[in-house]
Every structure is written in C-alpha cells, then in structure tokens.
C-alpha cells in the first residue's frame, strides 16, 4: 500500500526534469532554427526566380502576338474584352514578389527585348540581389 508521500512524488515532474527538457528544447532551437530560417529565404528566392521566368514567358507571348511590342505588367493582368482571360493566368492585379514588391518589365535597347525583374530581398532596385529572368536562368545579360 502506498502512503500519501509516495503518491505525490509519482504524480508529477521534478524541477530538474523540467529544466532538462527546457535545456534540450533550447539546444534544438539553436541548432535547427537557423537552418529552417535560412531555408525560408532560399525558398523566397526560388519562388521569385520561378515567377520572373513565368512572367517573361507570358510577356514574350504577348510581344509575339502584338508585333514585338513590349507589354506592361498591367497589360498582362487586364482581362481580354472578348474572353475575359488575362495573359498572366490567375492574376487580375500586378503580382508581387515574396518581399511584397511588384514585379516589373524593363524594355531593352533592341526592339522586342525586355527583362522581368524583382528587387530581391533588399527591396532596392539595381542592387546585386535583384532577380531577373536572366539571373534566374543563370545567364549573363547580352
């Protein structure tokens, strides 16, 4: 038969046990946390690369159908008066990159040439971390 002291001791965790669990959770967070948060930024960059390639492909189709004219982002998301479809399917407003900035189309020097751009993680235009259809394909600009 158990007395009341034995039952109370078996009923819960000791302070030492709780501290050990907290220590283990803290160590796990220190080791796993940076890896998980680092992957989050990598995922955003990969999403932006995928988006600029999709937008560029759609803009090329627009350009071909419109005698080499470079489209604006607004033209790609404006519904066609006859069909109601947009060139950039699934969008009725200019899409935003993972850092909440609008993608943009910049006309090139030659007729019909253009680049789709995201400002990248820093949100600043013209910096090293910008993502374009060229950098997304790991190409050098021509």
What does this 3D model show about the protein?
This protein has 142 residues and is mostly helical. It is 48% helix and 8% strand. The protein has a three-stranded antiparallel β-sheet with strand order 1-2-3. It is elongated and about 80 Å long. The chain starts with a helix and ends in a 6-residue tail after the last helix.
Structural key phrases:
142 residues, mainly alpha, Glycoprotein, Type 4 Pilin, three-stranded antiparallel β-sheet, 4 helices, 3 strands
Q: Alpha-carbon distance between the termini? A: 87 Å
What percent strand? 5-15%
Radius of gyration from the alpha-carbon trace, in angstroms:
27 Å
- Helical/strand content category: mainly alpha
Shape field: elongated
Overall strand count: 3
Could you tell me the mean pLDDT? 86
Order of helices and strands: HHHEEEH
Specify the CATH architecture.
2-Layer Sandwich
Count of DSSP helices? 4
Strand order of the largest sheet: 1-2-3
Helix content: 40-55%
Query: And the CATH topology?
Result: Glycoprotein, Type 4 Pilin
Q: What is the CATH level 1 assignment?
A: Alpha Beta
Poorly predicted ranges: none
Topology at a glance:
Elements: H1 4-11, H2 15-65, H3 73-77, E1 104-107, E2 114-118, E3 131-132, H4 133-136
């Amino acid at each position: 038969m158990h007395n009341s002291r034995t039952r109370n001791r078996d009923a819960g965790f000791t302070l030492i046990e709780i501290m050990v669990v907290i220590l283990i959770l803290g160590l796990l967070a220190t080791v796993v946390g940076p890896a998980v948060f680092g992957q989050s930024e990598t995922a955003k960059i990969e999403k932006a690369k995928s988006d600029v390639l999709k937008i560029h492909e759609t803009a090329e189709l627009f350009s071909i159908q419109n005698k080499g004219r470079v489209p604006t982002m607004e033209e790609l998301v404006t519904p066609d008066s006859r069909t109601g479809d947009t060139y950039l399917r699934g969008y009725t407003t200019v899409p935003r990159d993972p850092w909440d900035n609008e993608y943009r189309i910049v006309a090139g020097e030659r007729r019909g040439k253009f680049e789709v751009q995201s400002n990248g993680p820093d949100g600043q235009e013209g910096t090293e971390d910008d993502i374009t259809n060229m950098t997304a394909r790991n190409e050098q600009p021509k």
